[in-house]
Design a protein that fits this description.
seven-stranded mixed beta sheet, alpha/beta, 8 helices, single chain, 43% helix, Rossmann fold, globular
Length: 211
């Protein structure tokens, strides 16, 4: 992916599994993000309308696999394409998922909802809409949260929502959790292993502590 200024900023603010004190988040990183599970599709991704880059789709399927998410919702822009992309990848990876209609409540709440939007005027009402279908274990994934300053503003607003307890910025996806037993906390996490990058950023963090 292109090394944009926003991605460099993300890398310098991000952490890996080391230093994470939340057992829930640590388990997600080590047994979810770090799993060698990759989408291998030739599908063309319209990132502007769906927010689903190849990197985002890889992270999304690691989340679906880790939490065994079956009941899904797609809300926002281009939901037909989003559902089709996820269904196709699910078939190719032998993953069972089922998309529910947004017109009726999801029985016992949704496992995972994917939200897409090009601005805060799309994303924030969509987030409010999905709240009626969440439960304590629901995950909301938001695509391409750093695409613009307007979308980043929406992400910051969602993080502050009183229903939200935990958020994870993976750059390609924003993940939102509603676990009542979890202390409210935002995380910025690199969802991959890189010995070189980890060493470099570790030195950078140590330098910051010493000065």
């Amino acid at each position: 992916m292109p090394l944009t200024p926003s991605y460099f900023k993300f890398l310098f603010r991000s952490v890996n599994a080391h230093g994470i004190h939340s057992p829930f988040v640590y388990n997600l990183i080590t047994k979810g993000f770090y799993e060698r599970r990759y989408v291998e599709s030739d599908q063309k991704y319209d990132t502007n309308s769906t927010g689903l880059s190849k990197e985002a789709l890889n992270i999304l399927f690691k989340i679906i696999s880790h939490f065994k998410s079956y009941k899904l919702l797609a809300l926002g822009t281009d939901t037909t394409s989003i559902a089709e992309i996820i269904r196709t990848e699910a078939e190719q990876t032998n993953t069972k998922v089922w998309f529910y209609s947004t017109m009726v409540p999801v029985p016992d709440g949704v496992d995972l909802a994917y939200l897409s939007g090009n601005d805060k005027d799309t994303l924030l009402p969509t987030f409010e809409q999905v709240l009626k279908d969440i439960n304590n274990n629901s995950v909301v994934a938001i695509g391409n949260i750093h695409r613009s300053a307007d979308v980043e503003t929406a992400w910051e607003t969602i993080k502050k929502d009183p229903n939200v307890t935990l958020t994870i910025d993976t750059y390609h996806l924003g993940l939102v959790f509603f676990r009542r037993e979890q202390t409210k906390q935002p995380f910025i996490i690199r969802p991959f292993k890189s010995a070189v990058l980890d060493a470099f950023l570790g030195i950078k963090n140590l330098w910051g502590l010493l000065h």
